[in-house]
Amino acid sequence: MSNDVNLPEKWEADYARGTDGWDLSGPTPAFKRIAASGRFKPGRMIVPGAGRGYDAREFSRHGFQVTAVDFTSHAIQEMQRLVDPAAPIEILQSDIFALAESFNNSFDYALEYTCFCAIDPKRRADYADLITRLLKPNGIYIDLAFPLDGRAGGPPFAVTEAEVFNLFTARGFELISREKPADSVSPRKNAEELFVFQKTKTSEE
Question: Does 197 score more than 70 pLDDT?
Answer without folding.
Answer: yes
